Amino acid sequence: PSTDTETHRSLYLAFPSIGGVTHTHSTHAVAFAQARRPIPVLGTTHADTFNGPVPVTEALTPEQCARDYEYNTGQVIVDLLDRDDRRAREVPGALVAHHGPFTWGADATASLEHAIICEAVAEMALHTIALGTVVPPQHVLDRHYTRKHGPDAYYGNPGAA
Ligand SMILES: [Zn+2]
């Protein structure tokens, strides 16, 4: 994580389930971060991974920027999620206002996968908003999330090596 080590550390300290963090400046997710708008749930691609909108933080204060900037970049995410590990597991990413996406997972590979999916759903959401948003039925979204996550998950190809 280089200069962002302290951002990662603040997330690891707050959320015991996190074993990897990825940060990018991917174009479409950054667009939402710059507009300070969460990425809304508009379809099943989003719901497969994120059980709700990808939220966006408040802007950092002058004090948060002047001292311990990188640590405080993590802290605005921790505050956004109320330090709730369950929320961090169900929505494994957030947008830092005017900056970009941070995603996480059980390990580094999972956090990278979530970063790629975050960018993909941000791009899809921008196109959908341009066409005119239709709120998807919640039961379809719930079905997609729960078939991949939780005790009744069954998605995938368990017979494959
Ligand atoms: Zn950055």
Please identify the oligomeric state: single chain
N→C terminal distance:
32 Å
Low-confidence region ranges: none
Bound molecules: zinc ion
Corresponding CATH architecture: 3-Layer(aba) Sandwich
Task: Assign the CATH superfamily.
Answer: Class II aldolase/adducin N-terminal domain
Round the mean pLDDT to the nearest integer and report it: 94
How would you characterize this protein structure?
With 161 residues, this protein is mostly helical. The chain has one domain (2-148): L-fuculose-1-phosphate Aldolase, CATH 3.40.225.10. Helix content is 50%, strand content 9%. The protein is built from eight helices and three strands; from the N terminus they run H-E-H-H-H-H-H-E-E-H-H. It has helices at residues 5-14, 27-35, 44-47, 62-66, 69-80, 85-90, 108-131, 138-148; strands at 20-23, 93-96, 100-105. It has a three-stranded antiparallel beta sheet, with helices on both faces. A hairpin with a 3-residue loop joins strand 2 and strand 3. The longest helix has 24 residues, at 108-131. The chain starts with a helix and ends in a 13-residue tail after the last helix. The model has no long low-confidence stretch (mean pLDDT 94). The chain binds zinc ion. Zinc ion (ZN) binds at residues 23, 25, 99-100.
Secondary structure: elements and pairs:
Blueprint: H1 5-14, E1 20-23, H2 27-35, H3 44-47, H4 62-66, H5 69-80, H6 85-90, E2 93-96, E3 100-105, H7 108-131, H8 138-148
Antiparallel strand pairs: 1-3, 2-3
Helix pairs in contact: 1-5, 2-7
Bound molecules: zinc ion.
Zinc ion binds next to loops.
